[in-house]
Every structure is written in C-alpha cells, then in structure tokens.
C-alpha cells in the first residue's frame, strides 16, 4: 500500500529554463516524454551526460522541446550554443523557455545584444519567471559596454563610431543621461551643432551637464546663454573661471568693431592690429594715459586710430616722435611683441613676464610668427595675472 501511494518527486531544473514551462511550442507530448525531457536536463545539471543522452532519445527528433533540451544539455557540457539558441527561439517565437535559454546562453558568451532581445521576449511570454529582471541586468551591462566603447572611440578621434555607440545605448535605455552626453560630445566633434542641440534638453544640470550645454550654446553662437550656464557651475569647479572669462570675451566680440575681428584672424599681425588687440583686451588702459596726444601722420585715416593713440600715450606701443609716424602696416616681430607685453605689464602694475628658454617652467613662449590669436592670448595672460579671473571686466 505504501508503494502504491508513493508519488515521485518532481524533477528539479535549476541552471537552465525548464523546457516544459508554458507556453510550449510543438505538438503535445506524452507524459513519459515530458518526464524524459526534464530528466535529460536534470541529469546534465548533475553531470550525468550519458543518462541525458539516453533520455533525449525518448523524445521525437525535431520537436521544439527535444531541440531545446538538446541545446541545454550541450550548454551544460560547456559548449557554445548561443547562436543556435537564438535561431531556435526565432524559429518558434511563441516558445517562452526557448527565448529564456537563448538569453542565458548568449549572455554567457558575451552576446549582450542577443541576450537582451531574448530576455525581453521571454519576459513577455513568461512574466512570472523573472526574465524582466534579467533583461534589466543585461540592459545595464550592454549600456555600460557601449558607453565604454563609445568614449574610447571618441578619445581616439572616431566621433562617428562614438555616435553610433551612443545612439545604440539610447535605444537600449532611452533614459541614460551618460549616453546622451556622449552623443552630444560626438555630434559637436562632427560639427553637427543642430543635432547636438536637440539632445540637450535631456541632459541634467550636473556640472558635466552644465559645461556641455554651455559648449553647445557656444557652438550656436549663443554666448549670453553660455555665460548663464557657466555661471551656474559650482564655485569649486576648476574650469568655471576659464569658461566664464571666455564666454564674456566672446560676448564682447559680438559687438566688437570689424577691424578687431580682422586683427584677431590676421597672420602675420600688423602693428595697427596689435594696437587694437591690446586696447580691447585691456579696456582700462585708456584711464592710464598721460601727456599730450601724439600726432602720427600715418594713422589719421585708420579705423584703429583711437586705439593707436591709447597705446601710444601710455607708452605701451610708442611711435616715432620725430618722423611723426606709427608705422601701422609694419609686421610685428616676436621681439617687438615681447617688448610691448613688458611695457603693458609695467603700465598695469603686473609682474614682468618670464620668457621661455630651455628648461624653464611656468614661462611665456613667444610664437615664431606673430598672429592675432597668439598675441591676444599673451595679452590676456598679462592683463589677467594676479587678478580674479571670474571677475567681470
């Protein structure tokens, strides 16, 4: 009587999906075949592959359950079957356990894209089996991998590849701010400012986000917006002052006279251009003038005549008082630029510049050919030294 009443304990499968968990594809199996399928997988989990093969032979070849159980046994042997598992699941799209196993196998083999597709489908077919949590884990792993690849590509100069990784990460997880940030950086590198601006609204106002938004505003020429964004950076941000100073400078440039813009873009730089740059970069220089207004016959018709008078009266760029000439068209040489900067520092009460020689650190290096941008950069260093770079000038 005890033997007659005893019920067999259900076969337990722990490491791979139960091939008989509903929904199951294919024609209905007999009870003995159902038990054989489960027993085959359970035996493989226990390392008894001879018993597994014996049980598999009890199943009708070609049946989806036989196909899945066979792949699971091979998987438990240590074989790589992720690609075949994905093919099987795609061939029987309503078979929940096939999708679940495909997710497990593809994930173990590093195919996170395939694993994510399979886990999402398994979660739809078997919502109570925990595949939703698996999909979330794979989403995170795939997003992390894509972002790491994308950032490496961007650092290596491949902005197109970085953008592709960022967009794929956004498809996987649209709410990932770091993927949006990577996409914006890549688009800026590709000079696609409009596309970058479209992604900006989803970037949070973290220090990194504010700085990146400011970069997009700069690329659009919206320096007033860039200035506002940079002003919201934390005071301890190491680049805050530099960014604020640059935004203020460019905001001033919007209303600068055309001859200043020409001077900044010129190479080589002429004396009239250097006079305009010095007067513009040191707007308080005009209050330090003394003596009579010099008369230069060759600057009367110049657009830069006002600036020439300012730098000449302060002694920063003297002309020829005997010939009454400033020589505005003459090219500025590196030694002349150095002398101008030294005189500018003296007038402004700044420390004398240290010019670079072999082995010197923290020195100023003169360009081999003086152009507008390099001259303006050195003038800024002279006018800003020792002051508050965040202060409004």
How are the secondary structure elements laid out?
Elements: H1 2-5, H2 31-45, H3 49-56, H4 64-77, H5 82-91, H6 96-108, H7 112-125, H8 131-155, H9 159-172, H10 177-189, H11 193-199, H12 207-219, H13 223-231, H14 240-254, H15 258-265, H16 271-281, H17 305-313, H18 334-348, H19 372-384
Helix pairs in contact: 2-3, 2-4, 3-4, 5-6, 6-7, 7-8, 8-9, 8-10, 9-10, 10-11, 10-12, 12-13, 13-14, 15-16, 15-19, 16-17, 16-19, 18-19
What does this structure look like?
The chain has 393 residues and is mainly alpha-helical. It has three domains: 9-129, Alpha Horseshoe (Serine Threonine Protein Phosphatase 5, Tetratricopeptide repeat), CATH 1.25.40; 138-203, Serine Threonine Protein Phosphatase 5, Tetratricopeptide repeat (Alpha Horseshoe), CATH 1.25.40; 258-356 and 363-384, no CATH class. 59% of the residues lie in helices and 0% in strands. It is built from 19 helices and no strands. It has helices at residues 2-5, 31-45, 49-56, 64-77, 82-91, 96-108, 112-125, 131-155, 159-172, 177-189, 193-199, 207-219, 223-231, 240-254, 258-265, 271-281, 305-313, 334-348, 372-384. The longest helix is centred in the middle third of the chain and has 25 residues, at 131-155. It is rod-shaped, with a radius of gyration of 37 Å.
């Amino acid at each position: 009587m005890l033997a007659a009443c005893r019920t067999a304990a259900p076969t337990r499968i722990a490491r791979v999906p139960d091939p008989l968990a509903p929904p199951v594809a294919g024609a209905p199996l007999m009870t003995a075949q159902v038990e054989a399928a489960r027993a085959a997988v359970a035996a493989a989990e226990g390392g008894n592959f001879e018993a597994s093969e014996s049980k598999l032979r009890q199943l009708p070849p070609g049946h989806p359950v036989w196909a899945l159980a066979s792949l699971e046994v091979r998987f438990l042997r240590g074989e790589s079957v992720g690609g075949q598992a994905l093919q099987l699941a795609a061939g029987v799209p309503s078979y929940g356990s096939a999708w679940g196993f495909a997710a497990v196998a593809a994930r173990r083999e590093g195919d996170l894209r395939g694993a994510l597709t399979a886990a999402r489908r398994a979660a739809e077919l078997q919502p109570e089996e925990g595949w939703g949590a698996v999909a979330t884990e794979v989403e995170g792993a795939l997003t992390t991998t894509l972002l790491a690849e994308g950032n490496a590509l961007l650092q290596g100069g491949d902005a197109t590849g970085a953008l592709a990784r960022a967009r794929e990460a956004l498809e996987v997880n649209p709410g990932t701010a770091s993927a949006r940030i990577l996409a914006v950086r890549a688009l800026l590198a590709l000079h696609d400012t409009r596309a970058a601006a479209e992604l900006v609204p989803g970037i949070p106002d973290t220090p990194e986000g504010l700085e990146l938004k400011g970069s997009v505003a700069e690329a659009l020429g919206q320096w007033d917006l860039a200035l506002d964004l940079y002003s919201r950076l934390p005071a301890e941000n190491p680049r805050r002052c530099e960014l604020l100073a640059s935004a203020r400078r460019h905001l001033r440039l919007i209303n600068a006279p055309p001859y200043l813009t020409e001077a900044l873009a010129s190479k080589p730089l002429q004396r009239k251009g250097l006079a305009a740059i010095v007067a513009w970069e040191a707007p308080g220089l005009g209050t330090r003038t003394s003596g009579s207004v010099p008369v230069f016959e060759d600057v009367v018709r110049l657009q830069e005549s006002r600036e020439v008078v300012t730098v000449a009266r302060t002694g920063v760029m003297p002309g020829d008082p005997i010939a009454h000439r400033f020589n505005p068209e003459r090219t500025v040489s590196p030694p002349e630029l150095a002398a101008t900067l030294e005189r500018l520092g003296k007038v402004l009460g700044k420390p004398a510049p240290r010019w670079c020689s072999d082995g010197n650190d923290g020195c100023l290096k003169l360009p081999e050919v003086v152009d507008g941008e390099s001259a303006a950069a050195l003038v800024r260093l002279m006018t800003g030294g020792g002051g508050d770079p965040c202060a409004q000038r």
